[in-house]
Design brief:
globular, Rossmann fold, three-stranded parallel β-sheet, 162 residues, binds adenosine-5'-diphosphate, alpha/beta
Length: 162
């Protein structure tokens, strides 16, 4: 198994400190983390794939060992094409479990050579999700504790456009 890097896929709409905490902790176990920005057909995205990529790229500048990529399609196709073998996902509440369990088994079924590693949320961020950030921001709340400055700028731009 190639464990030189771990792939962290997600919709990151937008990236939050919850995601970033997971990346920083994964970097203590794996020398490199490949963040892969994807669309989740279950969710309606506020940001485009390019915007999400740019926000992550700007937010993670200076964090050594991290690369960011965009991918349209199935995660298993990305894994096969790049030869990657290990996937990182996060678990917050019980509510994550069903979905993560289903996706992990489906991905493992389609691509048996991959392994999916789960890291438990940091207690500081256990309630934090991209949706919560968008909802609170849209209602005029301060979300600067939960997202890095580049994301704040993109949220302001997006909201001003509406
Ligand atoms: P997706 O649409 O693929 O679920 P998300 O960006 O919502 O993409 O989440 C990507 C991964 O990050 C998921 O495994 C999710 O459980 C995890 N995650 C999101 N927010 C947090 C958080 N606050 N703490 C820990 N894990 C998180």
């Amino acid at each position: 198994m190639n464990s030189g890097f771990i792939v962290y896929p997600g919709s990151f709409d937008p990236i939050t400190y919850g995601h970033i905490d997971l990346i920083e902790r994964a970097l203590r176990i794996f020398p490199r983390v490949h963040v892969v920005v994807m669309e989740n057909p279950r969710k309606t995205s506020l940001f485009t794939l390019d915007e999400k990529y740019e926000m992550i790229d700007e937010s993670l500048k200076g964090l050594e060992g991290v690369t960011v990529e965009k991918w349209e399609g199935l995660l298993v196709d990305y894994m096969r094409q790049t030869g990657a073998r290990v996937v990182l996902r996060g678990l917050r509440a019980f509510s994550d479990f069903d979905y993560e369990f289903q996706m992990a088994l489906a991905n493992k079924y389609m691509c048996p050579e991959i392994e999916i590693v789960f890291l438990m949320t940091n207690v500081k961020y256990h309630f934090l999700s991209s949706s919560l950030v968008k909802e609170i921001f849209q209602m005029g709340g301060d979300v600067s504790r939960w997202v890095p400055p580049p994301v704040l700028r993109y949220l302001e731009k997006k909201l001003a456009k509406k």
